Amino acid sequence: MLVKGFSFAVKLGIEQRDEAIRVGALGATTLLFNDGNFTMPSITNYDSLKSESHIYRLLIDNLNPEQDDVIIIGSDNEDRRIAELAAKNAVLKTIMDHDIHNHV
User: Fold this and answer.
1) Residue 2 to residues 45, 78: CA-CA distances in angstroms?
2) Which tops the pLDDT comparison, 5 or 100?
3) Which of 7, 12, 24, 94 gets the most CB atoms within 10 Å of its CB?
């Protein structure tokens, strides 16, 4: 799931993981897109996909992220729908918990 321009709202990524688990998934991975790289929250200068060029290309080609976008990937070993629901739940929580949502 791509969240446009919301990197400012992500703290450690634990909040997104917790929301994924809340709906029965194994968890979620949160990536921030900055300066053409994917980074983990709180690790701002490390290109998390440096050695995973095929995953980098897959995310770029399919989601077309821009500066300060967030990508949340839900995960579950048994049900793809649960993984998708996990990502959606994490996205909604990220948006709803931030003040900018209340001013839109």
Assistant:
1) 21, 23
2) 5
3) 94
